[in-house]
Amino acid sequence: MTSLGADGAPFSTAGLTAFAVAVIGTAATFGIGLLNYRRQGQVLRSQERYQAEQLKLLESAQVTDRFTRAVEQMGSESTHVRMGGIFAMERIARDSTIDRRYVVDTLAAFVRGRLPSDDVEERRYVKILRLRAPDAQAALSVLCRPPLSDARGSAGDGVRLDLSRTDLRRADLRDARLDGVSLWGARLEGADLRGAHLAGSILEKANFGRVDPGNQYFQRGADLSGADLTGARTAGAFHLDEAMTDGTIGLPT
Q1: Which residues, listed in sequence order, are joined to residue 177 by a DSSP beta bridge?
Q2: pTM beyond 0.85
Q3: Bridge partners of residue 3, in order along the sequence
Q4: How far is CA 107 from CA 82, 85, 113, 210, in A?
Q5: Which long-range contacts (CB under 8 A, 24 or more apart) does 172-179 make?
Q6: What is the pLDDT of residues 39-89, one digit of tens each?
Q7: What are the sequence ranges of the domains in the chain?
Q8: Closest among 157, 202, 198 to 183, alpha carbons compared
Q9: Quick one: which of 104, 210, 114, 117 has its CA closest to 160?
Q10: Whole-angstrom Cα distance, residue 201 to residue 197?
């Protein structure tokens, strides 16, 4: 039996069969190729996920190693080595957002251990903090500027930077970001807090010192000129009314 093609030429059933087989073969080849392509895509995506996970693990291990070394440096007997560890912590905070909270807590613990208010000797001349404890001043500076000042908990979430019971006399805290920070019982006589941000902070029992030019040991209280104390807790603060407060915002009446 024969049939006529489009041009009127006859062709046999065998030809039709061959044509059908060719079409089916082509379709099968295309289908297999498509399946292989999809499998290859899945394999590539799986490899990419694996590589991304390995990269995260590697980065995490590197950060952990850097953090450990920085902590070791901060425990050194050398002031210069301790300061190197503090600035290494700041670099870690810049590189790793998820580790900023740990850096904040570590540096705050360093300041509390380095400057306990219980060690304050009354009526004794006090050097500026940058000279008497440059490593502690460096840690304070790092804590009170970005990125670490942005990593702290807000006053409402129950997580604060804890600098309570610290000896911060004559510390340089100009324009420092101390929002929501606990300075409960801190010694702040002579501290330079001009333009500091203290909104929502805890200043209860903090000692701001008297302005007393006649005192040869300690001649001035804290300078809060232009500072923002909006919403700060100041119950029982010592000598806040005698501190220098020209232009201070939110000063309790």
Answers
A1: 197
A2: no
A3: 11
A4: 11, 10, 10, 29
A5: 172/128, 172/129, 172/130, 172/137, 172/140, 172/141, 173/140, 173/144, 176/140, 176/141, 176/144, 176/145, 177/144, 177/145, 177/146, 177/149, 178/144, 179/149, 179/152, 179/154, 179/155
A6: 777 766 766 665 655 555 455 668 899 999 999 999 999 999 999 999 999
A7: 60-242
A8: 202
A9: 104
A10: 9
Among candidates 145, 63, 139, which has minimal Cα distance to 98? 63
Residue with tokens 């895509």: 41
Both tokens of residue 116? 């306990």
Residue 166 tokens read as 């610290």
Under a CB-based contact definition with an 8 Å cutoff, are residues 86 and 106 in contact? no
**Distances in Å between the alpha carbon of 158 and those of 147, 154, 189?**
20, 7, 28
Beta strand 10-12 pairing with 2-4: antiparallel
CA 223 to chain centre: 28
